[in-house]
């Protein structure tokens, strides 16, 4: 496994944010892949993604604000701050001179991609969605998808759904004083404490309020979507139909893999490299 190289970039508010270079090509790569993590970072799975990747690319992994070891852990400053941070990171990578920048997302990271695409459909040359968690209200996820923790899976987090719904209602009514309230608990990968709590404004910054039905239609040639047949979060058949009906985009089912292990499944990388 390639040893990741850790560094940082400066966002528009002059905060220094962490990222890892997961793969640096032996030759001078013409393309860069930026992969955005889900509600849990699952860093070891993303390292394995880089090792399996068959594209001649440099691979970058930005740690989203609030997940890193900054003083304000589990929270951000305002709803929408992730959009600004990620556009800043894309610009930072573009300045390195790549001919192509590819945006990839895993799980909830795919919801962040939708937000970026809504603001700028030319944000990247190509978009890769892996086991997407686009929005908790879509009828394509298992009922227990926001509370997963068992011996058979390493998907481990809890979202307090009723609290999120209440806070979203208050937010729409312009009551913003509760935006810092805790709405989720996840394993803390970057501080090794037992749990990291996530605020409402952090979680709300990861999703579009409503997903436009035309969002991916005119860029579908740039989009690749993969889901595992054993995904513990997605109902893959229903998800496949939803994406086809709404965006006329195909979803490829990778057999014999789940929500996290799909990141480094050899068939996914063979399929994607063959495009």
Notes on the structure:
With 275 residues, this protein is α/β, with parallel strands linked by helices. Helix content is 26%, strand content 24%. The chain is built from seven helices and twelve strands. An eight-stranded mixed sheet has the order 1-2-4-3-5-6-11-12, sandwiched between helices. Strands 7-8-9-10 form a four-stranded antiparallel sheet. Strand 3, helix 1 and strand 4 form a beta-alpha-beta unit. The two termini are 25 Å apart. About 2% of the residues have low confidence.
Chart the SSEs and their pairings:
Blueprint (H helix, E strand, L loop, with lengths): L4 E6 L5 E8 L7 E6 L6 H10 L4 E6 L18 H14 L5 E7 L2 H11 L6 E5 L16 E4 L2 E7 L1 H12 L9 E5 L9 E4 H5 L18 E6 L7 H12 L4 E3 L11 H8 L2
Parallel strand pairs: 3-4, 3-5, 5-6, 6-11, 11-12
Antiparallel strand pairs: 1-2, 2-4, 7-8, 8-9, 9-10
In total, how many beta strands? 12
Following the backbone from N to C, one meets helices and strands in this order, namely EEEHEHEHEEEHEEHEHEH
- Write out the strand line-up for the largest beta sheet, numbering strands in chain order: 1-2-4-3-5-6-11-12
Give a short account of the largest sheet. Answer: 8 strands, mixed
Strand-pairing-aware structural class: alpha/beta
- Overall mean confidence score, pLDDT: 90
Question: Which features does this protein show?
Answer:
alpha/beta; four-stranded antiparallel beta sheet; eight-stranded mixed beta sheet; 26% helix; 275 residues; 24% strand
Can you summarize this structure?
Helix content is 26%, strand content 24%.
